[in-house]
Amino acid sequence: MRARIYRPAKTAMQSGRAKIEGWVLEFEPEDAATPDPLMGWNGSADTDRQVRLRFATAEDAVAYAERNGHDYDVVAPKDRKFRPKNYAENFSSRRRQPWTH
Fold first, then answer.
1. What tens digit of pLDDT does each residue of 25-34 get?
2. Is residue 19 part of a domain?
């Protein structure tokens, strides 16, 4: 069974960086989802795709995967580029375009 270990990105509904400090281990689906003939809902016999394990560090997640014999891929998180801004930059002489309302 193959697992993916990654750090989740913040959701679009979040303005801050809270609750994203952990790491997640997810199993990759082994078979395709098929629609139910009666209701039309997607279903699968693979119940491992529903499992999401959370860990404090990537090393804990890797240790869990190795201890249980799972193959895994660690996806490195992308660092965000933060450029500090302040109100005075609106009136800076180095602006490309003049500041307007």
1. 999 988 888 8
2. yes
